[in-house]
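Q: For a teaching handout, I want to show students what a protein-ligand complex looks like in C-alpha cell form. Below are the inputs, and the small molecule is phosphoenolpyruvate. Please produce the holo structure.
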Amino acid sequence: MIVVLKPNISKKDEAAVLKEIRKLGYRPHVMRGIERVVVGAIGDERTHQSLETLVSWPQVERVMPVQKRYKLISREGQTNNSVVPVRDIPIGGKKFQVMAGPCSVESESQLMTTALAVKKAGATILRGGAFKPRTSPYEFQGLGEKGLKLLAKARRETGLAVITELLSEQHASMVAEYTDIIQIGARNSQNFQLLIAAAKTGKPVLLKRGLSMRIEEWLLAGEYVLSNNNANLMFCERGIRTFENYTRNTLDLSAIPIIKNESHCPMIIDPSQGAGRADLVVSLCKGAVAMGADGLLIEVHPNPAEAWSDGAQQLTLEGFARLMEGLKPFIAAAGRE
Ligand code: PEP
Ligand code: MN
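A: Here is the structure, written as C-alpha cells, with phosphoenolpyruvate included.
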C-alpha cells in the first residue's frame, strides 16, 4: 500500500502514522518530497490486516493499493493458460470450442432437433436453460428437473457435453448430476454462496459477467470458485448494461484481452445475450474469435419466432450452420483449430 500524508504535517503526526503501519504488520518505507511525505507500506496486502482505515486519520490524504486483490485467478500466479477439461473436450487450448443450443429447454423434440443440428454444424457442447432467471415472475421459468432430464437424454443420444444454469444453492447437487458445465448467470454472478456451492460440485463453472460488473469484481467472483478448490473456471462476457438501446446489452469485446492478460482462465463470448439481436451474432462472433476468445456460447432454436424465451436473439438451425462455416477462416487466422 502507498500512504500519502497531508502536506506540512508535524513530525509527531507522521510518527503516529508510521507506528500504526508497523502495528498492522507492514514495514514503512518513507519517501520525503518537498511538501509532503509518501510512505510505502511493505508487506502482503492480501494477508495482512488492511491499511485502508488510515484514510480516516486527519494527517492522511490517500491510501492506494499496489497489489491486486485476486491471487489464484491471476496470471501472476500461473503464467500458462488453464485448459478446462469438459469430459474429453478441452476448453482454453488450441481448439476453439462452440457451445450452442436453445435459450430454454422447451420440449424433447425442440431440444433433440437443435442438438442434432448444432452437432452436425460442429458444436461440441449443448446449451439449454432448465432453470431460467426471468425478469418477470409471469414469464416462462423453465422446465426445471424435467428440462435437466431432457438435456441428459440429448447428451446420451448425441455425445455432446451439456451446459446449463444453476439458479439456486438448493439445486446444486441436482443440476451437477445432469450437466457437464455449471453456468452461473449474469444476475447471480456476485451471489457468493451460489458460487461456492457451484465450486463444491466439482464441475467446471462458466461465470457470466454481471449486468453492471466491473472486470475486477468479475475476477474476484471467479476467485471464489478457485479458492473453493475448483480450478475449472471459465469467464463468459455477455454484454453489460449501458445507455445504448440499439442492442439489448453492450458486448464488451475489450474484456477479452483484459481477462486473458489478467487471468489464465478461458474466456467465452455469448453474443446472443450480448446483442439481443440475431442479425448481429455473426459479426460479434467473428470479432470475438479475432480478439482471442477461447469459445462461444450461442443461442439456436428450430423456430426462433415461437421460442418461449429470447426469440429475437436466437439463430435458426440454418443460420447457425452458416455461421460455423463463416467462422472457419477467422478461427484459422487466430491460430486456432
Ligand atoms: C442465458 O444464457 O440464457 C442467460 C439467461 O444468460 P445471462 O445470465 O447472461 O443473461
Ligand atoms: Mn437467453
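A: Two things your students might notice: The CA atoms of residues 8 and 36 lie 6 Å apart. The pocket of manganese (II) ion (ligand 2) is lined by residues 103, 273, 299, 309-310 (CB under 6 Å).
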